[in-house]
Amino acid sequence: MSDTDVTSRAAGRSEPDSVEDVFDHTYEEKAGPKPPMSIVWRNVILMTLLHTGAVYGLFLVPSAQPLTLLWALLCFVLSALGITAGAHRLWSHRSYRASLPLRIFLVTCNSMAFQNDIYEWARDHRVHHKYSETDADPHNALRGFFFAHIGWLLVRKHPDVIEKGRKLELGDLKADKVVMFQRRYYKPLVLLMCFVVPMAVPCCLWGESLWVAYFIPAILRYMLALNATWLVNSAAHMWGNRPYDSSINPRENRFVTFSAIGEGFHNYHHTFPYDYATSEYGWKINLTTCFIDLMCFLGLASQRKRVSKEVVMARVQRTGDSSHRSG
């Protein structure tokens, strides 16, 4: 069996019987008064400092060496892959299998991304899919762009998020020693990969100033990677068309697809969350899919799950908004 032939077996089905059953569209809204939001002032201060430092880093770009800018771009792509190919497509959705060396590489990249450890990220993402656009959704887009983008990180989690998260089956994550190693040593890994390495490489290898190396490959790159990921939660849940399922909020958003290296085909992804490509178009504007395919070619990944064209078209005709275009 080839690693790309794990597909839906009938045109009438949208999801297989697997761990992905936790991603069904069981959207519930809890009745009763909403608890007041409790601001986490530490996070407010840290995010303010981060974005202020990143804006300052923009003014340092003209003084940076070309190699430093290329290194910052490479760090952006690596940290993004730690989220998209790692925490998202591999560990949250189990949409393909990765060898131990690849899992170690993705954990390293994920630590550079500094967006919570993989166990917590995948748990919250599974809750997001199962209870999308309800109080149990960590970044419920119905609460507005700001909340879905960054506000959800500045307040205490809604009690429903915690309650639903505790009920999920996370045995696959607990059984992965690489994931649990990262969770155990997350703080030193983040300090090393998100800040020390991006800053030290330009200083040590081509003599960049410590000041520029700190504010561009570390701070500015980190801020841009964060916001690229957050756009999937905010913009891709608000603006765009819904060719696969018009009854759900996630949209197809080309800008988000470009900025988040392939994660903006969001109506497709929420309709078929187990598809490793998160899109029916393969490599098109989808660097993460290219990366996973390359890993499969090198023998480091396998068993990519894919939705058949027949299943996609059946869903388009049944629930889409008539905006679907082939190719």
UniProtKB/TrEMBL annotation:
Residues 70-274 form the Fatty acid desaturase domain. Signal peptide: none annotated. Its cofactor is Fe(2+). Keywords: Endoplasmic reticulum, Fatty acid biosynthesis, Fatty acid metabolism, Iron, Lipid biosynthesis, Lipid metabolism, Membrane, Metal-binding, Oxidoreductase, Transmembrane, Transmembrane helix. GO terms for molecular function: iron ion binding; palmitoyl-CoA 9-desaturase activity; stearoyl-CoA 9-desaturase activity. GO terms for biological process: monounsaturated fatty acid biosynthetic process; response to fatty acid; unsaturated fatty acid biosynthetic process. Its EC number is 1.14.19.1. GO terms for cellular component: endoplasmic reticulum membrane. The histidine box domains are involved in binding the catalytic metal ions. This is stearoyl-CoA 9-desaturase. The lineage of its organism: Eukaryota, Metazoa, Chordata, Craniata, Vertebrata.
